[in-house]
Specification:
The structure holds 2 protein chains of 2 kinds.
Chain A: E1 5-11, H1 15-27, E2 33-36, H2 44-50, E3 62-64, H3 80-83, H4 98-102, H5 112-126, E4 129-130, E5 146-147, H6 153-161, E6 166-168, H7 201-204, H8 206-209, E7 214-217, E8 220-228, E9 231-239, E10 242-253, H9 259-267, E11 282-290, E12 302-306, E13 321-326, E14 343-350, E15 359-362, E16 368-371, H10 377-393, E17 399-407, E18 441-443, H11 458-473
Parallel strand pairs in A: 1-2, 1-10, 2-7, 3-16, 4-5, 10-18
Antiparallel strand pairs in A: 6-12, 8-9, 9-10, 11-14, 11-17, 12-13, 13-14, 15-16
Helix pairs in contact in A: 1-11, 5-11
Chain B: H1 5-29, H2 32-46, H3 54-67, H4 72-78, H5 85-90, H6 95-112, H7 133-138
The chains are: A alpha/beta, B mainly alpha.
Chain lengths: 474, 146
């Protein structure tokens, strides 16, 4: 407890923290660990009953400038494992090599081949349902743990015409019942999964929470990290009962893309790029109105993933775009009699570029403040390109009209605020998440992404955390 | 040219009558009855030949209107049917909003009744109960599984 010297103090309990901890405990089962979580422990039943993931509204935990985009995250035990929709695609090999291949953005300090075994491991933990054919774009060294969800009629038409680009969307929503989880019910309420089918903190990480060596400090805000002689020594926390100091041999910082840099800034752990570059994907919603082809006969909420606008030399100029085909009437069924299902909701997710003008600061009261004036020109060009080429991509379908509903305010994928890289002058942390300026301090989570590819980040966060824990604890 | 006292009073009276008449007209257009009428007309227009008894229609329209956010803008929208998009534009609404609202009504009707579950198309449609927004847009009765 407080006053004890822990082997490990983990700040935050989302994907990065829990996957790091799971691996660390597997390699060092006798460890003593303090897990610090700002929010409460609210299990699945509580979340269903109250129709929310947490007592705390993320918008109360930071300040954004008036008129700028909102940022979403969950403050509560399990973090993003509570609210996520369990979309679990990998990044593509070229996502790791943007500078080398296209002369833009940055290379990651690891390549696809290096992370691939950890993708396999993370997919096994989450019991991902996936389509083997997707190996055409994301090479695999092993099969998916679960069969892919049933695709819709539209997905099958797309996959038949574009077998190297259109696949079943990889998901951590069980396609068949697995230990502790039911099969997906295809309700579009995944942030409070009614069937408890998606991989979550409570059905997937119970062994971490219940580990005898783990002390969980909920309703405890990690305020600052104390350092001495160039190494992290303790975490100063605030709770209703006052301040506590948790000392650890290793400090793992996995709050989220806003709170993690805020903690470093409050700690006086200086690096010119701390908090700089915060971004997330640019998202846009649209609908294809179809002539004579029904939708919504798939087996989960999002059934198709399309890579037609993702990879390629256009990335020298414009961000990649990923298309998600939704299997629910996001914008309502059609009104015309008998044609109710002849509609395809599509979510376009576009790569953004970290900008120096976007950053996390701290106010005079220590609260995180986010500045993000606008999406990058690179991201905007990617969106413009995607919208221009979308009709061509949808050629296999009988599209009679394309409705553009507009941008989605937030993807809930806060990234790039503590970017990793081998050069300390261009990155806050190294390829394992170790802080370049402070020893025994490791960052996990999407904050350390050097770039912001269009794919959902959670699986990659998990794989990076597993890799980091294996290298540091092994 | 200077106005006489009589002319000024006449002008003010006329203006006042016009404003009062306009307000009365707006109240009429935005009344709940008018909204319900529009909902029922929308359902009927999109369900040609479907046997929808009066009880089902009125129960649905009442439930739909009662559940609707009480925003004046939305109610003005219901008055726009006869006047076309010009009135919608005056109300500050995009044309797409009207279409979306029609889709919302039809979607709610499909999920609030047994229309999709009837084996025999000649069977009269029964109102079961309005679905919440979550059940309506989050529910997929067409899903097929492995």
């Amino acid at each position: 407890m407080a006053g004890e010297q822990y082997d490990l103090v983990v700040i935050g309990s989302g994907f990065g923290s829990l996957f790091f901890l799971k691996k660390f405990l597997a390699l060092r089962p006798d460890s003593r660990v303090a897990l610090v979580e700002w929010g409460r422990r609210r299990d699945h039943a509580w979340q269903i009953e109250h129709d929310r993931n947490s007592d705390i509204d993320a918008q109360d935990c930071h300040r954004s400038r008036k008129g700028e985009k909102p940022w979403n995250y969950t403050i509560g035990l399990g973090g993003g494992l509570n609210c996520w929709w369990a979309q679990a695609p990998r990044l593509l090999p070229e996502d790791f090599e943007m500078q080398s291949r296209y002369g833009v953005l940055a290379d990651w300090p690891l390549d696809y081949d290096e992370i691939e075994p950890f993708y396999i491991e993370a997919e096994a933990i989450m019991q991902i349902a996936g389509d083997p054919a997707i190996a055409a774009v994301c090479p695999r060294s092993g099969p998916f743990p679960l069969p892919a969800h049933r695709m819709t009629t539209l997905d099958r038409a797309m996959a038949a015409a574009q077998p190297d680009r259109h696949f079943a969307f990889p998901a951590a929503r069980a396609s068949v019942p697995v230990a502790g989880r039911n099969a997906c019910c295809a309700s579009a309420w995944c942030h409070r999964c009614p069937a408890d089918a998606k991989f979550s903190a409570f059905n997937g990480m119970a062994e971490v929470f219940d580990h005898p060596g783990v002390d969980i400090f909920t309703e405890t805000q990690a305020w600052a990290i104390e350092t001495a002689s160039g190494r992290a020594e303790a975490v100063l926390c605030r709770s209703a009962t006052g301040e506590i100091r948790l000392r650890g041999d290793l400090i793992v910082l996995g709050a989220n893309g806003i709170q993690s840099p805020a903690i470093l800034l409050r700690s006086g752990i200086e690096h010119p790029l701390t908090g700089v570059g915060i971004c997330e994907q640019v998202s846009f919603l649209c609908e294809a109105m179809l002539a004579g082809l029904d939708n919504f006969d798939g087996g989960t909420v999002t059934t198709g993933i399309n890579y037609s606008l993702y990879a390629g030399p256009h990335r020298t100029e414009a961000g990649a775009a990923m298309l998600a085909f939704d299997n629910f009437a996001k914008h309502g069924l059609r009104a015309e009699f008998g044609r109710w299902r002849q509609v395809l909701p599509i979510s376009i997710s576009v790569e953004d570029a970290p900008q120096d003008s976007s950053r996390v600061r701290i106010g005079v009261d220590g609260v995180a403040e986010v500045e993000h004036p606008t999406v990058s020109d690179y991201g905007q060009r990617g969106l413009d390109r995607a919208l221009a080429l979308l009709p061509e991509v949808l050629t296999p379908l009988p599209v009679e009209e394309l409705l553009l509903h507009g941008p989605r305010p937030s993807e809930s994928h806060v990234q790039c605020s503590l970017r990793m890289g081998n050069d300390p002058s261009h990155a806050v942390v190294d390829g394992l998440g170790r802080h370049h300026g402070v020893k025994d301090l490791v960052v996990v989570g999407s904050a350390l992404f050097p770039t912001c590819p269009p794919a959902n980040p959670s699986l990659t966060v998990a794989a990076l955390a597993l890799r980091s824990a294996e290298r540091l604890a092994g | 040219m200077p106005l006489s006292r009589r002319t000024l009073l006449l002008a003010l009276g006329t203006a006042g009558s016009l404003v009062a008449g306009g307000m009365g007209g707006l109240r009429h257009l935005t009344s709940e009855d008018n909204f319900r009428h529009w909902v029922e007309e929308t359902v009927a227009r999109h369900m040609p030949g479907v046997p929808i008894p009066e009880t089902t229609m009125t129960a649905f329209s009442a439930a739909f209107v009662a559940s609707f956010p009480p925003r004046r803008k939305q109610r003005i929208l219901t008055a726009g049917r006869g006047a076309g998009n010009r009135l919608l534009e005056r109300a500050g609404l995009r044309a797409g909003t009207y279409r979306s609202l029609e889709r919302h009504v039809v979607t709610q009707f499909l999920f609030a009744t047994d229309l999709l579950d009837r084996g025999d198309p000649a069977t009269e449609v029964t109102f079961l109960g309005l679905r919440s927004h979550r059940e309506c847009l989050g529910r997929n009765p067409f899903a097929e599984f492995l």
